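TOKENISE THE FOLD
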Amino acid sequence: MFCFLLVKPPRIPGQISELSRCNTSPISQCAAFHLRLFLISNRSHSVNRANQYRRVTIDFFQLTEQLTLQAEQAARATEQTARATEQVTGRSRWIAMEQETERVKREISKEIATVQALTWEADRLSHMVLAFEVSVNGEMEVAVEEADMTAWLLMWLLLKFNGIKAEGKCRVQ
């Protein structure tokens, strides 16, 4: 479908050209609105010198194909940028989660090592207390310093366990 538009050149540069349609189909009405600014730059025209109007031939099927192609290209470009942004944020989330997991694993391994050391120390002290109990029950004389040292070591071990428990509660909160 072809439509002929008469375009009067603007009197002032930058002013929108005046249009008069020769064909009043709905397609030409739509396209004339979109093409106002582009008609002056179109080189396929003949000049009617008497009225200084330019006659422009427009193929509306080609025009609609070009407009839809431009719209599709714009949509593809926005999709690609959205995908790229999503991949970047997705990867950064994945890396952040991986770093968080590694940090938690390191902390847990440190805590496990601490608990194992304290367990070994508790076993050693329990053997000490058992030997102390056997000597007291066997009515042997026990030095006061030995009893004080055992009590002090047990209290110190209890404080270590309480420290781990308090540190765990602080982390949970």
